[in-house]
Amino acid sequence: MKVGKSTAIWLLVFGVAVATLVAIRAATGGDIGCAGAIAVLAAVVSGAALVALAVAAAVRAIVRRLTLRLAFSYFLIGIVPIPLLAALLFAGAYLVAHQIIATTVRREVAAVGVEAAADSGKLPGFRVDADGRVASSDVAWLPRGASLPWARSLKEPRPVVVGDDAWLVAGVPGSPDRFVLLLLTDPERKWARRVAERTGYAVDIEPGTSRKSGRGFNIDFSGRRNAERQERRKAKWEDTAGPAAPPGRRSWIDRKWVAGVYLDKPTATFAPVPDARNVVIYAARTSPRALFEQLFAQGVPEVGRVFWGIFGGLAATLLLVYLVALAIAFTLVGTLARNVNRLTRASRAVAAGDFSVRVNSRSRDQIGDLARGFDGMASSIQGLLADTARRERLESEIAVARTIQQKLLPPTAAELPGMTVRARFEPLAEIGGDYYDYVRLPSDRSAV
């Protein structure tokens, strides 16, 4: 393979840079210094240049040969969209699953609060008077007389943030002035475990901070500021992981890697709030199998199987249609490429002087018409060459006959006794049947 001058130069630069860097590291024991940095820079630049040259050479090779061009075009049109579409479908499915998990956890947290409020005998709580002030309280962070204007208008359980803890406020049914408090971030993870039991997810609840920045939307979990607390919460997170995977099932579909996060604005925040926690974060994880079973759950299992059957049938039909289209496309591209290759080989043979070569294409498309036209042209040229060869051979034979005839005729000028001979012989065709001669006879006589 011939290497261009610029490619050879970049290869030399890359080799020298790598050799220099290796020598410097061997001599200094790892400290490359300024010279090593220059060698690294030269290696990176030359390597990038070589990659660019290789890509350009590959593109030229693909564009130059029609077969490669067709194959590359088909690859871009027929193959590349498949992983892109698969990635799009996966991303869309994951986003939908994320929203399902997140909203399910938020709904179940509210349901747990409603159930706890209906059986509020052992839970801390508070009362408010007609003015919306705390009349009595079981927690220190909510002193008597504190103003809670939102309490009497509370229609469903809502979270509040107290420092690094998240509480859920739920109204007691039948008592508009009584409310119970659920510590969602309690060390025993009681309420998170209850939500996990209801959903089958691994659940974690944390207060946090959300803010917009130049780089996007940032979320800070409060528990991550305390390593010991984070490790404890991680262990508790595993405790609320819901049903374990069946024995022997350790595939990706049974691992809990599908996550959902719901950010809920707290109804109120109470001191101490070190970093102005402004959201309560409901995080959950589950496995694809558990999520699928929830999505297609029915009281009658056969109904769920019908849904899966419809989905599988549509998927199989689309796959079959795509495979058939793929086979047809490969057949068409292969036929076109074969005819083009035959034409290329035949044209090279004709250029070398072999006019007996034929393409013999059976295609009924334009390439087939072109191949048959090429065969006709080659046949015509071969016939013309044969006629030319015959004509040249005949002319050569005629020239020989003419020469022989000229040799048989006597000289055109002669002096005979009693006469002078002057002759001019010019046949009407290439050669003629006429003949003349003159001879000297005895007794000074001549015959013409």
Overall description:
With 448 residues, the chain is an alpha+beta fold. Helices cover 52% and strands 17% of the residues. The strands form 4 sheets. It has a 6-stranded mixed β-sheet with strand order 2-1-5-4-3-9, covered by helices on one side. A 4-stranded antiparallel β-sheet has the order 7-6-10-8. The longest helix is centred in the last third of the chain and has 51 residues.
| Topology as a string of helices (H) and strands (E) | HHHHEEEEEHEEHEEEHHHEEEE
Beta-strand percentage?
Answer: 15-25%
Report strand order across the widest sheet.
2-1-5-4-3-9
Q: Percent helix among the residues?
A: 40-55%
Tally of contiguous helical segments: 9
Estimated radius of gyration: 49 Å
In whole angstroms, the N-to-C terminal distance is 81 Å
Q: How many beta-strand runs?
A: 14
What's the average pLDDT? 81
- Main sheet: strands, sense, barrel: 6 strands, mixed
Apparent shape: elongated
Structural class: alpha+beta
Which regions have little confidence, pLDDT < 50, spanning 5+ residues?
none
Secondary structure layout plus pairing:
Layout: H1 5-28, H2 33-64, H3 66-79, H4 81-118, E1 125-128, E2 134-137, E3 158-162, E4 165-171, E5 178-183, H5 190-199, E6 202-213, E7 216-221, H6 227-239, E8 258-264, E9 268-270, E10 279-286, H7 288-295, H8 301-351, H9 366-408, E11 413-416, E12 419-422, E13 439-441, E14 445-447
Parallel strand pairs: 3-9
Antiparallel strand pairs: 1-2, 1-5, 3-4, 4-5, 6-7, 6-10, 8-10, 11-12, 13-14
Helix pairs in contact: 1-2, 2-3, 3-8, 4-5, 8-9
